[in-house]
Amino acid sequence: MSEPSSPAAESESHLSLFTLTMINVAAILAMHALPSLAEYGCALVFYLGAAALGFFIPAALISAELASGWEGEGGVYLWVTEAFGPKWGLVAIFMQWVENLPWFAMVLAFAASAFAYLFDPVLATNKWFVVAFIWFGLAISTLVNLRGLKFSAFLSTSGVLIGTIFPCLVIIALGAVYWLRGEPLALQFSVPAMLPDLENPQQLMLLAVMLVSFTGIEMSAVHVTEVKDAGKTYPRAIFISCGLIIILSMLAALSIALVIPADDVSLSAGVYQALAKFFAIFGMPMMAPIITFLVAYGAMVMVITWMIGPSKGIREAATEGYLPELWRKKNEFGIPVHVLALQAVVSGILSIAILFMPSVSSAFMLMNALAAQLYLIMYLLMFAAIIRLRYTHPHVKRSYQVPGGKVGIWLVAGIAILSSCFVFITGFIPTGSLRESVAGIVGYVGFLLVGCLVFTALPLWYFHRSGQRSTRHVQ
Hints:
CATH architecture: Up-down Bundle
InterPro entries: AA/rel_permease1, APC_superfamily
Largest sheet: none
CATH topology: Amino acid/polyamine transporter I
Subcellular location: Cell membrane
Number of domains: 1
CATH superfamily: Amino acid/polyamine transporter I
Radius of gyration: 21 Å
Structural class: mainly alpha
Number of strands: 0
Shape: globular
GO molecular function: transmembrane transporter activity
Number of helices: 18
Membrane topology: Multi-pass membrane protein
Transmembrane segments: 15-34, 41-64, 76-94, 101-119, 125-146, 158-180, 204-225, 237-260, 280-308, 337-357, 363-387, 407-429, 441-463
């Protein structure tokens, strides 16, 4: 069973609809993903629509039902455990937690590029600077989260407003003015250009990048016990978040594609390339560093937001005896101290891989690919769980249900499962400079295979080693 909440934790147990929505947007709307999306050019509209219909919206609908029916702490761990037992619940939450380790490094590499552009753009390609910044960012993010949910929720709200939504709106506005002024465009709008090039393996790989940029809608479910009237508030927050994320992502990525040719987009610094070019054209070069600083702040806050969610779920599994006892410890704010410290250390170690990659951009892609593969394993379990729970737990009251009865849940979850399997397979296709040599291809595929096998085997090994059974009441 979960340990009783401390007074401090109880006092901060009311998240509003607005705050919960901002936590969702802060966790998913990713400025660092915009350059990857911009690489599609006009085909972005097709791929974004495919990712939204095939994955993002189904994941949102499924998360809303699961969170409204099972409001206990633990999120995906609770849901998958109810469906398939604690072993697979442990695998699911471990995948959600461990995928953050390369992802933290990726997002902080993006933030490092932003700060580099404030002082010396050459630093953005300096691997040692990027790794040092990642370590610094991990330390700061961990310390901030140790102060509890109230402070990190404030940062999530402020970070998403001034560090993500505002810069997105600035880029969209600049792109619209640029287009209306008749400036030369780096892409041409036409029906053929909007269709996917399915013969291009690089575009298939980029589809995995796009899909993973839409992951995380279920993450805020671990806060469901801190939300008043969670059964109604949580689904509303999810649907509002979906609309904001899809619209802002599409318009901002298209704005970048207007001024930066697809072949010239830097995955780690494309946002700053676009900002610098926009403001130079409009005679306001002094604005680029200001917006760039806000973007860097938003990236840092995104890491802060993601550090606490999965760590609370992994602590729930530890509390039930399926992970080391040390992982159960929490401070007076209800924060799992040792889990936060461990993930910062492991993420820092993974970031060292950047030093051995051809460029910061290729390292950025590698970290993103590993995070995607690990996360998709969790999603496959979550999508399967919603189908099983409709049959095994029909009596559980859900304030929101995926419409259409059992046919509806098979359709929604089935589409999500097929999309996830397709992207998981294509995720092993290397792209960019990694495809230029046999060593690059073998290294890329090998890194992903070893990462997936090791991180999937670890929770299964520890579960059998523990020899314990769940103490949680099954509804």
